[in-house]
Protein backbone atom coordinates (compact mmCIF):
# COMPACT_ATOMS: atom_id res chain seq x y z
CA UNK A 1 0.00 0.00 0.00
CA UNK A 2 2.82 2.42 0.88
CA UNK A 3 4.71 1.41 -2.25
CA UNK A 4 1.60 1.76 -4.45
CA UNK A 5 0.98 5.25 -2.99
CA UNK A 6 4.63 6.17 -3.41
CA UNK A 7 4.41 5.29 -7.11
CA UNK A 8 1.71 7.99 -7.43
CA UNK A 9 4.27 10.71 -6.64
CA UNK A 10 6.45 12.11 -9.43
CA UNK A 11 9.93 13.48 -9.51
CA UNK A 12 10.20 17.24 -9.13
CA UNK A 13 6.79 17.68 -7.51
CA UNK A 14 6.02 19.70 -4.39
CA UNK A 15 4.28 17.42 -1.90
CA UNK A 16 2.79 17.74 1.57
CA UNK A 17 3.10 14.69 3.83
CA UNK A 18 1.10 13.82 6.88
CA UNK A 19 2.24 11.50 9.59
CA UNK A 20 2.22 7.72 9.34
CA UNK A 21 1.68 5.83 6.11
CA UNK A 22 1.59 9.02 4.08
CA UNK A 23 5.11 9.94 5.11
CA UNK A 24 6.33 6.40 4.55
CA UNK A 25 4.96 6.53 0.98
CA UNK A 26 6.52 9.94 0.40
CA UNK A 27 10.00 9.13 1.60
CA UNK A 28 9.81 5.83 -0.26
CA UNK A 29 9.08 7.72 -3.49
CA UNK A 30 11.98 10.08 -2.97
CA UNK A 31 14.40 7.23 -2.39
CA UNK A 32 13.02 5.04 -5.16
CA UNK A 33 12.18 7.13 -8.21
CA UNK A 34 11.69 10.80 -7.31
CA UNK A 35 15.02 12.17 -5.98
CA UNK A 36 13.96 15.77 -6.51
CA UNK A 37 10.53 15.42 -4.89
CA UNK A 38 10.23 18.44 -2.55
CA UNK A 39 8.22 17.99 0.59
CA UNK A 40 7.10 19.65 3.79
CA UNK A 41 4.66 18.93 6.60
CA UNK A 42 1.61 20.95 7.59
CA UNK A 43 3.45 22.15 10.69
CA UNK A 44 5.80 23.97 8.34
CA UNK A 45 8.77 21.65 8.77
CA UNK A 46 10.92 21.79 5.65
CA UNK A 47 13.93 19.85 4.45
CA UNK A 48 13.83 17.18 7.14
CA UNK A 49 14.57 13.51 6.74
CA UNK A 50 13.42 11.57 9.78
CA UNK A 51 16.17 10.07 11.94
CA UNK A 52 15.87 6.85 13.92
CA UNK A 53 12.59 5.75 12.34
CA UNK A 54 9.53 7.56 11.11
CA UNK A 55 8.08 10.26 13.33
CA UNK A 56 4.92 9.64 15.35
CA UNK A 57 3.75 13.19 14.90
CA UNK A 58 4.41 16.35 12.98
CA UNK A 59 6.31 17.82 15.89
CA UNK A 60 8.19 14.67 16.80
CA UNK A 61 11.86 15.36 17.41
CA UNK A 62 12.66 12.74 14.76
CA UNK A 63 11.61 15.29 12.16
CA UNK A 64 12.83 18.37 14.04
CA UNK A 65 16.43 17.16 14.14
CA UNK A 66 17.61 18.05 10.68
CA UNK A 67 15.09 20.49 9.26
CA UNK A 68 16.13 23.43 7.12
CA UNK A 69 13.15 25.64 7.98
CA UNK A 70 10.44 25.78 10.64
CA UNK A 71 7.49 27.95 9.76
CA UNK A 72 3.83 27.44 10.69
CA UNK A 73 0.33 26.48 9.65
CA UNK A 74 -0.58 29.59 7.67
CA UNK A 75 2.63 29.25 5.68
CA UNK A 76 2.43 25.49 5.02
CA UNK A 77 -1.31 24.92 4.70
CA UNK A 78 -2.11 28.42 3.50
CA UNK A 79 0.62 29.90 1.29
CA UNK A 80 1.68 26.53 -0.13
CA UNK A 81 -1.49 24.38 -0.08
CA UNK A 82 -4.70 26.45 -0.05
CA UNK A 83 -3.07 28.79 -2.57
CA UNK A 84 -2.97 25.97 -5.13
CA UNK A 85 0.82 25.81 -5.27
CA UNK A 86 1.30 22.27 -3.93
CA UNK A 87 1.19 19.47 -6.51
CA UNK A 88 0.10 16.56 -4.37
CA UNK A 89 -1.05 15.59 -0.90
CA UNK A 90 -1.84 12.27 0.75
CA UNK A 91 -4.72 11.86 3.19
CA UNK A 92 -6.09 8.96 5.22
CA UNK A 93 -9.78 8.05 5.58
CA UNK A 94 -11.99 6.32 8.11
CA UNK A 95 -14.74 6.35 5.47
CA UNK A 96 -14.56 7.16 1.78
CA UNK A 97 -17.40 7.17 -0.75
CA UNK A 98 -17.83 6.69 -4.49
CA UNK A 99 -17.02 10.34 -5.20
CA UNK A 100 -13.87 10.26 -3.10
CA UNK A 101 -15.32 12.26 -0.20
CA UNK A 102 -13.44 11.54 3.01
CA UNK A 103 -14.75 11.23 6.55
CA UNK A 104 -12.30 11.48 9.44
CA UNK A 105 -14.64 13.33 11.81
CA UNK A 106 -17.11 10.86 13.28
CA UNK A 107 -19.39 7.88 12.79
CA UNK A 108 -23.11 8.57 13.27
CA UNK A 109 -24.35 5.39 11.57
CA UNK A 110 -27.34 7.22 10.08
CA UNK A 111 -28.10 9.98 7.62
CA UNK A 112 -28.22 13.23 9.55
CA UNK A 113 -31.13 15.57 8.95
CA UNK A 114 -30.20 18.92 7.43
CA UNK A 115 -28.69 21.52 9.76
CA UNK A 116 -28.35 19.20 12.74
CA UNK A 117 -25.24 18.15 14.54
CA UNK A 118 -25.96 15.51 17.22
CA UNK A 119 -23.02 13.90 19.07
CA UNK A 120 -21.42 11.13 16.99
CA UNK A 121 -21.52 7.49 18.11
CA UNK A 122 -17.77 7.50 17.58
CA UNK A 123 -15.74 10.70 17.58
CA UNK A 124 -12.77 10.47 15.21
CA UNK A 125 -10.02 13.09 14.83
CA UNK A 126 -11.60 15.73 12.61
CA UNK A 127 -10.21 17.01 9.35
CA UNK A 128 -6.85 18.27 10.55
CA UNK A 129 -5.11 19.66 7.48
CA UNK A 130 -6.81 17.19 5.13
CA UNK A 131 -9.67 19.56 4.23
CA UNK A 132 -7.12 22.20 3.26
CA UNK A 133 -5.18 19.64 1.20
CA UNK A 134 -8.38 18.35 -0.45
CA UNK A 135 -9.46 21.90 -1.36
CA UNK A 136 -6.10 23.28 -2.45
CA UNK A 137 -3.63 20.65 -3.71
CA UNK A 138 -3.54 20.13 -7.48
CA UNK A 139 -4.42 16.51 -6.73
CA UNK A 140 -4.53 14.27 -3.70
CA UNK A 141 -4.25 10.57 -3.00
CA UNK A 142 -6.44 8.86 -0.42
CA UNK A 143 -5.15 5.85 1.52
CA UNK A 144 -7.56 3.49 3.29
CA UNK A 145 -7.81 -0.12 4.42
CA UNK A 146 -10.29 -1.75 2.07
CA UNK A 147 -13.18 -2.77 4.32
CA UNK A 148 -16.90 -2.58 3.62
CA UNK A 149 -17.55 -0.33 6.61
CA UNK A 150 -15.06 2.18 5.19
CA UNK A 151 -15.95 2.08 1.48
CA UNK A 152 -19.50 3.38 1.63
CA UNK A 153 -22.06 4.77 -0.82
CA UNK A 154 -22.13 8.06 1.11
CA UNK A 155 -19.89 9.03 4.03
CA UNK A 156 -21.60 9.99 7.32
CA UNK A 157 -19.81 13.35 7.27
CA UNK A 158 -17.69 14.99 4.58
CA UNK A 159 -14.56 16.17 6.39
CA UNK A 160 -12.56 16.65 3.21
CA UNK A 161 -14.21 17.12 -0.17
CA UNK A 162 -13.63 14.72 -3.05
CA UNK A 163 -15.96 15.35 -5.98
CA UNK A 164 -18.89 15.94 -3.53
CA UNK A 165 -22.01 14.85 -5.48
CA UNK A 166 -20.27 14.31 -8.81
CA UNK A 167 -19.00 16.08 -11.86
CA UNK A 168 -18.96 19.87 -11.73
CA UNK A 169 -19.47 20.14 -7.97
CA UNK A 170 -15.92 21.24 -7.19
CA UNK A 171 -16.14 23.97 -9.82
CA UNK A 172 -19.38 25.15 -8.23
CA UNK A 173 -17.56 25.80 -4.97
CA UNK A 174 -14.54 27.31 -6.69
CA UNK A 175 -12.01 24.91 -5.20
CA UNK A 176 -8.57 25.69 -6.50
CA UNK A 177 -7.35 22.07 -6.41
CA UNK A 178 -8.27 19.29 -8.81
CA UNK A 179 -9.61 16.73 -6.35
CA UNK A 180 -8.71 13.11 -5.56
CA UNK A 181 -6.70 11.33 -8.26
CA UNK A 182 -6.58 7.89 -6.65
CA UNK A 183 -7.71 5.84 -3.67
CA UNK A 184 -4.95 3.40 -2.78
CA UNK A 185 -6.34 0.57 -0.70
CA UNK A 186 -5.14 -2.68 0.83
CA UNK A 187 -6.63 -4.48 -2.20
CA UNK A 188 -5.81 -2.23 -5.17
CA UNK A 189 -6.19 1.23 -6.65
CA UNK A 190 -9.41 3.09 -7.55
CA UNK A 191 -9.48 6.10 -9.88
CA UNK A 192 -12.25 8.53 -10.83
CA UNK A 193 -14.08 8.08 -14.13
CA UNK A 194 -13.32 11.29 -16.08
CA UNK A 195 -16.98 11.66 -17.16
CA UNK A 196 -18.81 10.91 -13.90
CA UNK A 197 -16.12 11.43 -11.23
CA UNK A 198 -17.26 8.12 -9.71
CA UNK A 199 -14.41 5.93 -8.53
CA UNK A 200 -13.74 2.72 -10.49
CA UNK A 201 -11.36 -0.18 -10.16
CA UNK A 202 -8.10 0.83 -11.79
CA UNK A 203 -5.95 -2.02 -10.57
CA UNK A 204 -5.70 -4.89 -8.11
CA UNK A 205 -2.77 -6.42 -6.28
CA UNK A 206 -1.61 -9.96 -7.12
CA UNK A 207 -3.16 -11.27 -3.90
CA UNK A 208 -6.49 -9.57 -4.72
CA UNK A 209 -8.92 -9.38 -7.67
CA UNK A 210 -11.74 -7.18 -9.04
CA UNK A 211 -14.24 -9.57 -7.35
CA UNK A 212 -12.46 -9.19 -4.02
CA UNK A 213 -12.55 -5.37 -4.37
CA UNK A 214 -16.29 -5.48 -5.23
CA UNK A 215 -16.96 -7.67 -2.20
CA UNK A 216 -15.48 -5.07 0.16
CA UNK A 217 -16.91 -1.97 -1.54
CA UNK A 218 -20.24 -0.54 -0.42
CA UNK A 219 -21.27 0.86 -3.81
CA UNK A 220 -21.67 -0.86 -7.16
CA UNK A 221 -18.18 -0.30 -8.45
CA UNK A 222 -17.34 -0.48 -12.13
CA UNK A 223 -14.21 -1.82 -13.73
CA UNK A 224 -12.22 1.03 -15.28
CA UNK A 225 -11.49 1.01 -19.01
CA UNK A 226 -7.81 0.27 -18.48
CA UNK A 227 -8.04 -1.76 -15.28
CA UNK A 228 -5.17 -4.19 -14.81
CA UNK A 229 -3.12 -6.16 -12.35
CA UNK A 230 -0.70 -3.90 -10.39
CA UNK A 231 2.92 -5.09 -10.62
CA UNK A 232 4.24 -6.65 -7.39
CA UNK A 233 6.84 -4.63 -5.46
CA UNK A 234 10.29 -5.30 -6.85
CA UNK A 235 13.07 -6.51 -4.51
CA UNK A 236 14.57 -3.02 -4.81
CA UNK A 237 11.30 -1.33 -3.81
CA UNK A 238 10.93 -3.64 -0.81
CA UNK A 239 14.50 -3.02 0.28
CA UNK A 240 13.97 0.75 0.12
CA UNK A 241 10.73 0.56 2.09
CA UNK A 242 12.46 -1.47 4.83
CA UNK A 243 15.31 0.99 4.94
CA UNK A 244 12.96 3.94 5.48
CA UNK A 245 10.73 2.32 8.06
CA UNK A 246 13.60 1.15 10.29
CA UNK A 247 11.35 0.32 13.20
CA UNK A 248 8.79 -1.49 11.05
CA UNK A 249 6.05 0.32 12.92
CA UNK A 250 4.19 1.39 9.83
CA UNK A 251 4.84 -1.34 7.29
CA UNK A 252 1.59 -2.84 6.23
CA UNK A 253 1.05 -4.47 2.86
CA UNK B 1 20.42 45.68 30.96
CA UNK B 2 18.36 42.92 32.56
CA UNK B 3 17.21 45.13 35.37
CA UNK B 4 15.46 47.50 32.97
CA UNK B 5 12.88 45.05 31.66
CA UNK B 6 9.30 44.97 32.84
CA UNK B 7 9.40 41.77 34.89
CA UNK B 8 6.08 39.86 34.70
CA UNK B 9 7.17 36.55 36.20
CA UNK B 10 4.55 34.91 38.31
CA UNK B 11 4.05 31.41 39.68
CA UNK B 12 1.96 29.05 37.56
CA UNK B 13 -0.69 28.53 40.24
CA UNK B 14 -0.91 32.27 40.78
CA UNK B 15 -1.34 32.83 37.01
CA UNK B 16 -4.24 30.36 36.92
CA UNK B 17 -5.82 31.98 40.00
CA UNK B 18 -5.58 35.49 38.60
CA UNK B 19 -6.17 35.04 34.90
CA UNK B 20 -8.68 32.18 34.58
CA UNK B 21 -12.27 31.61 35.61
CA UNK B 22 -15.07 29.12 35.07
CA UNK B 23 -16.75 29.43 31.69
CA UNK B 24 -13.76 31.19 30.15
CA UNK B 25 -12.75 31.00 26.50
CA UNK B 26 -9.15 29.79 26.53
CA UNK B 27 -6.80 29.10 23.62
CA UNK B 28 -3.63 27.04 23.67
CA UNK B 29 -0.88 26.50 21.12
CA UNK B 30 0.67 23.23 20.05
CA UNK B 31 0.62 20.35 17.63
CA UNK B 32 -0.46 16.86 18.69
CA UNK B 33 1.96 15.58 21.35
CA UNK B 34 4.10 18.65 20.68
CA UNK B 35 5.16 21.65 22.71
CA UNK B 36 2.05 22.95 24.50
CA UNK B 37 1.26 24.09 28.06
CA UNK B 38 0.21 20.77 29.63
CA UNK B 39 1.45 22.05 33.03
CA UNK B 40 -1.10 24.87 32.80
CA UNK B 41 -3.87 22.37 32.09
CA UNK B 42 -2.89 20.34 35.17
CA UNK B 43 -3.09 23.52 37.28
CA UNK B 44 -6.53 24.37 35.83
CA UNK B 45 -7.66 20.93 37.01
CA UNK B 46 -6.08 21.37 40.45
CA UNK B 47 -8.00 24.64 40.82
CA UNK B 48 -11.17 22.87 39.67
CA UNK B 49 -11.96 25.20 36.76
CA UNK B 50 -15.13 24.11 34.95
CA UNK B 51 -17.17 24.77 31.86
CA UNK B 52 -14.18 25.96 29.85
CA UNK B 53 -14.51 26.83 26.16
CA UNK B 54 -11.25 25.80 24.56
CA UNK B 55 -10.27 27.01 21.09
CA UNK B 56 -7.22 25.37 19.65
CA UNK B 57 -5.94 24.53 16.18
CA UNK B 58 -5.07 21.03 17.33
CA UNK B 59 -6.07 19.38 20.54
CA UNK B 60 -3.41 17.42 22.29
CA UNK B 61 -2.58 16.09 25.76
CA UNK B 62 -3.65 19.30 27.55
CA UNK B 63 -7.17 19.32 26.12
CA UNK B 64 -7.41 15.53 26.35
CA UNK B 65 -6.67 15.77 30.06
CA UNK B 66 -8.97 18.76 30.65
CA UNK B 67 -11.79 16.98 28.82
CA UNK B 68 -11.23 13.73 30.68
CA UNK B 69 -11.37 15.66 33.96
CA UNK B 70 -14.71 17.20 32.99
CA UNK B 71 -13.40 20.77 32.89
CA UNK B 72 -14.53 21.54 29.34
CA UNK B 73 -17.98 22.09 27.87
CA UNK B 74 -17.14 23.42 24.42
CA UNK B 75 -14.28 23.13 21.96
CA UNK B 76 -13.49 24.53 18.54
CA UNK B 77 -10.62 23.08 16.57
CA UNK B 78 -9.20 21.36 13.53
CA UNK B 79 -7.94 18.08 14.93
CA UNK B 80 -8.60 16.17 18.13
CA UNK B 81 -6.27 13.17 17.79
CA UNK B 82 -2.86 12.13 19.07
CA UNK B 83 -1.40 11.15 15.67
CA UNK B 84 0.26 7.74 15.86
CA UNK B 85 -0.74 7.45 19.56
CA UNK B 86 -4.38 7.16 18.54
CA UNK B 87 -7.62 8.94 19.34
CA UNK B 88 -7.79 11.25 22.36
CA UNK B 89 -9.87 9.18 24.74
CA UNK B 90 -10.68 12.03 27.12
CA UNK B 91 -12.09 14.13 24.26
CA UNK B 92 -13.88 11.13 22.75
CA UNK B 93 -15.60 10.30 26.01
CA UNK B 94 -16.68 13.90 26.56
CA UNK B 95 -17.98 14.39 23.00
CA UNK B 96 -19.68 11.02 22.57
CA UNK B 97 -21.48 11.37 25.91
CA UNK B 98 -22.63 14.88 25.00
CA UNK B 99 -20.93 16.36 28.08
CA UNK B 100 -18.91 18.56 25.77
CA UNK B 101 -19.34 19.67 22.18
CA UNK B 102 -16.73 20.01 19.47
CA UNK B 103 -17.17 22.50 16.62
CA UNK B 104 -15.09 21.33 13.65
CA UNK B 105 -12.85 23.49 11.50
CA UNK B 106 -9.66 22.61 9.61
CA UNK B 107 -6.05 23.12 10.68
CA UNK B 108 -5.79 26.15 8.40
CA UNK B 109 -9.20 27.59 9.26
CA UNK B 110 -8.32 27.97 12.96
CA UNK B 111 -5.10 29.99 12.46
CA UNK B 112 -6.90 32.12 9.85
CA UNK B 113 -9.62 32.81 12.42
CA UNK B 114 -6.93 33.82 14.94
CA UNK B 115 -5.33 35.99 12.27
CA UNK B 116 -8.66 37.70 11.57
CA UNK B 117 -9.00 38.30 15.32
CA UNK B 118 -5.45 39.63 15.49
CA UNK B 119 -6.07 42.03 12.59
CA UNK B 120 -9.48 42.98 13.99
CA UNK B 121 -11.11 42.02 10.70
CA UNK B 122 -14.79 41.00 10.56
CA UNK B 123 -14.00 37.71 8.78
CA UNK B 124 -11.34 35.93 6.77
CA UNK B 125 -12.23 34.91 3.20
CA UNK B 126 -11.27 31.35 2.31
CA UNK B 127 -11.73 28.60 -0.24
CA UNK B 128 -11.39 25.88 2.41
CA UNK B 129 -14.03 24.23 4.62
CA UNK B 130 -16.85 25.19 2.22
CA UNK B 131 -18.79 22.46 0.45
CA UNK B 132 -18.03 19.94 3.18
CA UNK B 133 -19.90 19.17 6.39
CA UNK B 134 -17.52 21.48 8.22
CA UNK B 135 -19.58 24.24 6.63
CA UNK B 136 -22.98 22.56 7.00
CA UNK B 137 -22.86 21.01 10.46
CA UNK B 138 -22.78 23.55 13.23
CA UNK B 139 -23.48 23.46 16.94
CA UNK B 140 -27.01 24.50 17.64
CA UNK B 141 -28.21 24.91 14.10
CA UNK B 142 -27.03 26.62 10.97
CA UNK B 143 -30.31 28.32 10.16
CA UNK B 144 -29.62 31.75 11.68
CA UNK B 145 -26.23 33.14 10.75
CA UNK B 146 -24.50 30.22 9.06
CA UNK B 147 -21.24 28.95 10.51
CA UNK B 148 -19.34 29.84 7.32
CA UNK B 149 -21.48 32.30 5.33
CA UNK B 150 -20.70 33.15 1.72
CA UNK B 151 -19.17 36.44 0.66
CA UNK B 152 -18.69 37.78 -2.82
CA UNK B 153 -15.24 38.77 -4.00
CA UNK B 154 -15.81 42.36 -5.23
CA UNK B 155 -13.09 41.96 -7.87
CA UNK B 156 -13.95 38.67 -9.58
CA UNK B 157 -17.53 38.22 -8.41
CA UNK B 158 -16.70 34.69 -7.18
CA UNK B 159 -18.03 33.40 -3.88
CA UNK B 160 -15.85 32.53 -0.91
CA UNK B 161 -16.47 31.27 2.60
CA UNK B 162 -16.27 33.79 5.46
CA UNK B 163 -14.43 32.38 8.49
CA UNK B 164 -15.45 34.04 11.75
CA UNK B 165 -12.68 35.80 13.70
CA UNK B 166 -11.44 34.57 17.07
CA UNK B 167 -10.16 36.77 19.88
CA UNK B 168 -9.91 34.41 22.84
CA UNK B 169 -10.36 35.84 26.31
CA UNK B 170 -7.07 34.22 27.24
CA UNK B 171 -4.28 32.57 25.24
CA UNK B 172 -1.76 30.36 27.00
CA UNK B 173 1.30 29.73 24.88
CA UNK B 174 4.11 27.36 25.77
CA UNK B 175 7.58 28.37 24.55
CA UNK B 176 11.04 26.94 25.22
CA UNK B 177 12.62 30.30 26.07
CA UNK B 178 11.32 33.65 27.31
CA UNK B 179 12.76 36.43 29.37
CA UNK B 180 11.00 37.73 32.47
CA UNK B 181 9.20 40.33 30.38
CA UNK B 182 7.74 37.73 28.04
CA UNK B 183 9.89 38.08 24.91
CA UNK B 184 9.59 34.55 23.56
CA UNK B 185 11.70 32.37 21.29
CA UNK B 186 10.15 29.30 19.68
CA UNK B 187 12.01 26.16 18.57
CA UNK B 188 10.47 23.82 16.02
CA UNK B 189 7.25 24.56 14.18
CA UNK B 190 5.65 27.89 15.10
CA UNK B 191 2.32 26.33 14.13
CA UNK B 192 -0.28 28.97 15.10
CA UNK B 193 1.53 30.67 18.02
CA UNK B 194 2.31 33.95 16.27
CA UNK B 195 -1.23 34.85 15.16
CA UNK B 196 -2.73 33.33 18.31
CA UNK B 197 -0.57 35.55 20.51
CA UNK B 198 -1.81 38.65 18.67
CA UNK B 199 -5.46 37.61 18.73
CA UNK B 200 -5.96 37.11 22.47
CA UNK B 201 -7.33 39.67 24.92
CA UNK B 202 -4.91 38.36 27.59
CA UNK B 203 -1.73 36.41 26.97
CA UNK B 204 0.22 34.17 29.33
CA UNK B 205 3.60 32.77 28.31
CA UNK B 206 4.46 29.41 29.85
CA UNK B 207 8.23 29.13 29.47
CA UNK B 208 10.34 26.03 29.88
CA UNK B 209 13.37 28.23 30.60
CA UNK B 210 13.66 31.82 31.66
CA UNK B 211 16.59 33.45 29.89
CA UNK B 212 18.30 36.75 30.57
CA UNK B 213 17.33 39.77 28.49
CA UNK B 214 20.78 39.61 26.87
CA UNK B 215 19.70 36.45 25.07
CA UNK B 216 16.73 38.29 23.60
CA UNK B 217 18.92 41.19 22.50
CA UNK B 218 21.31 38.74 20.83
CA UNK B 219 18.53 37.13 18.76
CA UNK B 220 15.78 39.74 18.29
CA UNK B 221 14.89 38.29 14.88
CA UNK B 222 14.01 35.02 16.55
CA UNK B 223 11.66 36.58 19.08
CA UNK B 224 8.24 35.67 17.65
CA UNK B 225 6.23 37.04 20.57
CA UNK B 226 7.33 40.45 21.90
CA UNK B 227 6.93 41.30 25.58
CA UNK B 228 4.71 44.27 24.76
CA UNK B 229 1.71 41.97 24.17
CA UNK B 230 2.37 39.60 27.09
CA UNK B 231 0.43 39.92 30.35
CA UNK B 232 2.26 37.36 32.46
CA UNK B 233 5.16 34.93 32.27
CA UNK B 234 5.31 31.67 34.17
CA UNK B 235 8.22 29.30 34.58
CA UNK B 236 7.28 25.67 33.94
CA UNK B 237 10.14 23.16 33.78
CA UNK B 238 8.98 20.08 31.84
CA UNK B 239 5.88 22.14 31.17
CA UNK B 240 5.01 20.26 27.98
CA UNK B 241 5.45 16.79 29.52
CA UNK B 242 4.35 14.12 28.60
CA UNK B 243 4.57 15.81 25.20
CA UNK B 244 7.90 16.71 23.69
CA UNK B 245 9.52 20.10 23.16
CA UNK B 246 11.85 20.47 20.18
CA UNK B 247 15.45 21.01 21.28
CA UNK B 248 14.68 20.21 24.92
CA UNK B 249 13.11 16.78 25.38
CA UNK B 250 11.38 13.98 23.52
CA UNK B 251 7.80 13.02 24.15
CA UNK B 252 7.41 10.47 26.93
CA UNK B 253 5.85 7.77 24.71
CA UNK B 254 5.09 5.37 27.53
CA UNK B 255 3.33 8.02 29.55
CA UNK B 256 1.33 9.41 26.61
CA UNK B 257 -0.07 5.90 26.12
CA UNK B 258 -0.61 5.42 29.86
CA UNK B 259 -2.40 8.74 30.26
CA UNK B 260 -4.58 8.23 27.19
CA UNK B 261 -5.50 4.71 28.32
CA UNK B 262 -6.48 6.07 31.75
CA UNK B 263 -8.68 8.77 30.19
CA UNK B 264 -10.80 6.11 28.52
CA UNK B 265 -12.90 5.66 31.66
CA UNK B 266 -14.03 7.87 34.51
CA UNK B 267 -12.44 5.58 37.09
CA UNK B 268 -9.17 5.49 35.16
CA UNK B 269 -9.19 9.27 34.88
CA UNK B 270 -9.79 9.68 38.61
CA UNK B 271 -6.91 7.34 39.44
CA UNK B 272 -4.67 9.19 36.99
CA UNK B 273 -5.53 12.61 38.44
CA UNK B 274 -4.86 11.38 41.97
CA UNK B 275 -1.44 10.09 40.97
CA UNK B 276 -0.17 12.58 38.41
CA UNK B 277 -2.13 15.82 38.81
CA UNK B 278 -3.51 16.64 42.28
CA UNK B 279 -0.33 15.91 44.30
CA UNK B 280 2.06 17.29 41.65
CA UNK B 281 1.68 20.95 42.48
CA UNK B 282 5.10 22.38 41.60
CA UNK B 283 8.17 21.84 39.45
CA UNK B 284 10.02 19.75 42.04
CA UNK B 285 7.05 17.49 42.57
CA UNK B 286 6.76 17.04 38.81
CA UNK B 287 10.44 16.08 38.53
CA UNK B 288 10.00 13.56 41.37
CA UNK B 289 6.89 12.18 39.74
CA UNK B 290 8.50 11.68 36.33
CA UNK B 291 11.74 10.37 37.83
CA UNK B 292 15.36 11.38 37.34
CA UNK B 293 16.23 8.46 35.12
CA UNK B 294 13.35 9.04 32.76
CA UNK B 295 14.04 12.77 32.55
CA UNK B 296 17.68 12.05 31.72
CA UNK B 297 16.51 9.81 28.88
CA UNK B 298 13.97 12.34 27.56
CA UNK B 299 16.35 15.29 27.47
CA UNK B 300 18.84 13.18 25.53
CA UNK B 301 16.96 14.12 22.33
CA UNK B 302 18.46 14.13 18.84
CA UNK B 303 17.17 17.70 18.51
CA UNK B 304 19.13 18.94 21.59
CA UNK B 305 21.57 20.91 19.44
CA UNK B 306 18.73 23.28 18.48
CA UNK B 307 18.79 24.71 22.02
CA UNK B 308 22.56 25.07 22.25
CA UNK B 309 22.81 28.75 21.19
CA UNK B 310 20.50 29.76 24.05
CA UNK B 311 21.74 27.56 26.88
CA UNK B 312 24.30 29.98 28.28
CA UNK B 313 21.54 32.50 29.03
CA UNK B 314 19.26 30.13 30.94
CA UNK B 315 18.70 31.51 34.44
CA UNK B 316 19.16 29.24 37.45
CA UNK B 317 16.27 28.49 39.79
CA UNK B 318 17.39 30.86 42.58
CA UNK B 319 17.58 33.75 40.12
CA UNK B 320 14.07 32.96 38.86
CA UNK B 321 12.83 32.88 42.46
CA UNK B 322 14.37 36.30 43.01
CA UNK B 323 12.71 37.61 39.87
CA UNK B 324 9.32 36.28 40.97
CA UNK B 325 9.74 38.04 44.33
CA UNK B 326 10.55 41.29 42.56
CA UNK B 327 8.07 40.95 39.74
CA UNK B 328 5.84 43.89 38.88
CA UNK B 329 2.87 41.51 39.11
CA UNK B 330 3.87 40.23 42.54
CA UNK B 331 4.60 43.66 43.96
CA UNK B 332 1.58 45.49 42.66
CA UNK B 333 -0.60 42.45 43.19
CA UNK B 334 -2.62 43.50 40.16
Explain what this protein looks like in three dimensions.
The complex is a heterodimer of chains A (253) and B (334). With 253 residues, chain A is α/β, with parallel strands linked by helices. Chain A has one domain (2-244): Glutaconate Coenzyme A-transferase, CATH 3.40.1080.10. Chain A has helices spanning 2-6, 21-32, 61-64, 73-82, 130-136, 169-173, 210-215, 235-244, and strands at residues 14-17, 38-41, 45-46, 69-70, 88-92, 95-97, 102-103, 106-107, 122-123, 139-144, 151-152, 180-185, 188-192, 199-204, 223-229. The longest helix of chain A is centred in the N-terminal third of the chain and has 12 residues, at 21-32. Chain A is globular, with a radius of gyration of 18 Å. The model of chain A has no long low-confidence stretch (mean pLDDT 92). Chain B is of the alpha/beta class and 334 residues long. Chain B has 15 helices and 12 strands. Chain B has helices at residues 12-19, 38-46, 61-68, 89-97, 109-119, 133-136, 193-199, 213-218, 253-262, 266-277, 283-290, 292-299, 308-311, 317-325, 328-332; strands at residues 25-28, 52-58, 72-79, 101-104, 124-126, 150-152, 159-163, 170-178, 184-185, 202-210, 223-225, 232-235. In chain B, the strands form 2 sheets. In chain B, strands 1, 2, 3, 4, 8, 9, 10, 11 and 12 form a 9-stranded mixed sheet that branches. Chain B has a 3-stranded antiparallel sheet with strand order 5-7-6. In chain B, helix 2 packs parallel to helix 3, helix 3 crosses helix 4 and helix 5 (109-119) crosses helix 7 (193-199). The longest helix of chain B is centred in the last third of the chain and has 12 residues, at 266-277. Chain B is globular. Chains A and B meet through helix 3, helix 4, strand 9, helix 5 and helix 6 of A and strand 3, helix 4, strand 4, helix 5 and helix 6 of B.
Amino acid sequence: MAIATGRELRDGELAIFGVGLSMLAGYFARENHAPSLRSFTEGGVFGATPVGGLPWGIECTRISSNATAFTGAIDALGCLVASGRCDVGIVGAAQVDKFGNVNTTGIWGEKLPKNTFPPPKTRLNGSGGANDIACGCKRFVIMAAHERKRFVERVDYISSPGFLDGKGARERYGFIGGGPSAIVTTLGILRPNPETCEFEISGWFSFSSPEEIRKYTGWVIRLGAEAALIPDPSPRELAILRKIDITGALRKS
Amino acid sequence: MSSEIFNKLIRLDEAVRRFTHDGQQIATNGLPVGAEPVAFARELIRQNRKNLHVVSTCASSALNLLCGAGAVSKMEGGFSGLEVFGFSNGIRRAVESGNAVWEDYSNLAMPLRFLAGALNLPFFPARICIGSDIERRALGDNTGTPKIPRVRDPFSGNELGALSPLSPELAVIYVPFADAAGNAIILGSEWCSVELSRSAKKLIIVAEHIVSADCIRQYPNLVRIPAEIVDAVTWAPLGAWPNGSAGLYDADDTHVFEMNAALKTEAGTQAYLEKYVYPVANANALRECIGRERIARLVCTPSAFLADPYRKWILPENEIERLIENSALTQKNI
